[in-house]
Write a structure and sequence with these properties.
The complex is a heterodimer.
Chain A lengths: L3 E4 L2 E4 L5 E7 L5 E7 L6 E6 L6 E2 L6 E4 L5 E6 L8 E8 L7 E2 L3 E5 L1
Parallel strand pairs in A: 2-11
Antiparallel strand pairs in A: 1-3, 3-8, 4-5, 4-9, 5-6, 7-8, 9-10, 9-11
Chain B lengths: L3 E4 L2 E5 L4 E7 L5 E7 L5 E7 L2 E5 L2 E6 L4 E6 L8 E9 L8 E4 L3 E6 L1
Parallel strand pairs in B: 2-11
Antiparallel strand pairs in B: 1-3, 3-8, 4-5, 4-9, 6-7, 7-8, 9-10, 9-11
The chains are: A mainly beta, B mainly beta.
Chain lengths: 112, 113
Amino acid sequence: NAGVTQTPKFRVLKTGQSMTLLCAQDMNHEYMYWYRQDPGMGLRLIHYSVGEGTTAKGEVPDGYNVSRLKKQNFLLGLESAAPSQTSVYFCASSYGTGDGYTFGSGTRLTVV
Amino acid sequence: KNEVEQSPQNLTAQEGEFITINCSYSVGISALHWLQQHPGGGIVSLFMLSSGKKKHGRLIATINIQEKHSSLHITASHPRDSAVYICAVLQLISNFGNEKLTFGTGTRLTIIP
């Protein structure tokens, strides 16, 4: 089925470890986004991309890096994980400004 | 004060009841999204609207741009409607990659059989 696929679905990291979250979409969407969802708060934008080879910072970019080497993939990296990065991460994609969004199923990350 | 406020935060109702969830926002927007998040976490887009009213099955979404308010209604509610419903507003901001989506904190709906 067409959509947005996130891997992994769950992960536990130790403080200081690194990891990469993968987001893949097969809808030929130009725009891709990484959000984090924390209790009592709305989703917050970490980084986004408006096309292959481009990335930009969102509201809460510190401690994360991203890459969009291929149009269908958007990677989110944590170089040195911290407990404050314990969260549920969602990837989303859209054709462009003002279009509907398609979300992935989320990655639950715990940093101990 | 959050730019997007939803009410109520939690709502429990009996199966068959008519449900209304409200969203108020304080910024100028180009569109508003209603999203559904089920237990287990996946988020599904229900509606995107910029004026008037949209209907899909038992779900109806309305927006009043002048009053900066939107409502999501569910008719003949069913236990499978139990989920968190999230309102998000889209702002066109030229120095932010042209658009920014700001989310409310969600309304947790529980429908009891």
